[in-house]
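> @MW can you paste both from yesterday?
MW: sure, first one:
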Amino acid sequence: MSTFLENQNWRYATKKFDASKKISTADLNTLKEAIRLSASSYGLQPYKVFIIENPELRAKLVGAAYGQTQVADASHLLVFANELNFGAAGIDQLANNICATRGLPLEAIQGYVDYMKGNITGLPEETRNIWTSKQTYLALGNLLNAAAELKIDVTPMEGFVPAQVNEILGLDKLGLNASLLAPIGYRHADDDTQYYKKVRKSSDELFITL
């Protein structure tokens, strides 16, 4: 745990990436697996994660991210996109996966399937879209922690225009919406931010024990 906390102190939202340094295939696969294993409500994972390597696409996305150059200069750009109008089809997909993975008949989990559908499908579409968007933040948390362990930098970004990202990547045609951007790579030596002391609330300010 001491190493984990050291790595949390090491990480920061990188402002300038070294464009000459690339993440190895092995490390990228580790980050992908960390995202895949992330917690999510009911285990549904109602999102997709796009790994953008194409430099032309990334140049376009810089404009959609208010000119933030990390989008183009990082080794890779991850785009977390939540599913829109999530409903029974997505729940049935999980049910089939559970049955295939655990060797169960559908009847064995039908009660759980009905429970999920009862809690989710009756919600207004806007509420469901907000909920699926929130799920991407859980996956982002796993990415941040795994990347810090590998000494790989991540810049979580909400500062972008989702409609523009959706258009550039064709997400709206897939029933998806860009929720988060996460450039990943290695900090540039010229990024002075890496030398700043981390500023957080004290434990006394943050935690309340009842």
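MW: second:
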Amino acid sequence: MARAPDNIKSINGSKETIKLAIRITDLWFVGTPNRSEQAEMIIIDSHGDAIHVVCKQDQLKSWKADLMENYTYVMHNFKVMKNDGQFRICDHQYKLVFTGVTVVRQSDLEDLPFKKYKFADFTNVIVGLFQPELLVGKFSCNLFN
């Protein structure tokens, strides 16, 4: 019998054999194409919980053509790392990093939600009850000004 998928909420750094049934809600590439590039993504599980995932340059060649936004996958064998950078994409205290043994298999999982928005109450923002290191919203940069 196949093992049931883990929940993103249960990721606590204590085990590395995590199996997730997920949807990639956001996927972007950082770096210079054909030089140093990595994929970063936000994935969600059936409960709508999200976590940040990184596929570094050495693993990206294997997976770049297979990873697509809004598709569903079963993924396992990640490296679990503290999500303690200067800026965080998700509020989960851990992030996942692809390794040489990470497995990604596209799967038709219709019950997985699409993006789940978690809006902050405006009064909490005014009084400063928010996480300043958590990136939110859309950011754009005009390089031709």
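> thanks! The longest helix spans residues 57-63.
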